[in-house]
Amino acid sequence: MLKIWGRITSINVRKAVWTAQHLGLQFERIDAGGAFGIVKTPEYIALNPNSVVPTLIDGDFVLWESNVIVRYLCAKHSMGDLYPSDLQERFDAERWMDWQQTTFSPSGRNAFWELIRVPEAQRDMQKVEASIASTEPLLDRMESHLSKNEFMACGRFTMADIPLACEVHRWFGLGVSKTKRPHLEAWYAKILARPASANVLTLPLS
Ligand SMILES: N[C@@H](CCC(=O)N[C@@H](CS)C(=O)NCC(=O)O)C(=O)O
Asked: Which residue's alpha carbon is at the smallest distance from atom 19 of ligand 1?
């Protein structure tokens, strides 16, 4: 059976679990990372030399990097649908996945970390403010895009929506956005309503 190593409190694990649930795959998730440890053991490092979660195991094949895991599962089980087979459609989706990983994630990370993981007395609110200031324009970019498109790419639900939905779950969970963004909220509500969100995007941040 497919195995996903990683605690569900990790945004990157949530991407893999959401995808597997959406595709109706049988899988086992094994807690690792954070308080669960394991990621620094020689056995885990042999699977994932980065000592991070998630790691996917599909038979003899071991894969790390969350967005690549999403791509792999979609390519294997949803070719031509979640994973577009048309080259330009595929790269339309790819760009938003890379944007999540290289632009949104580093921007929003400090606000999440300080507000959720650091005890209040030790919080660096300057880091929080800087993270909010750099992330709000990214949400505006999504709002503008979603005011003209129902989904992030290809005019339909694809793999591109999954990492960004996990990112928006994390951002909305912080409760720091004061701006109303109706198109972004409607897009997120549609994804949240899907059965695959159960015990993934329905969980509070921790
Ligand atoms: N680029 C990697 C980043 C993975 C990553 O940084 N994972 C974090 C959790 S979100 C982690 O494993 N941190 C160490 C830990 O949980 O012990 C990916 O997308 O898979």
From this structure: 66
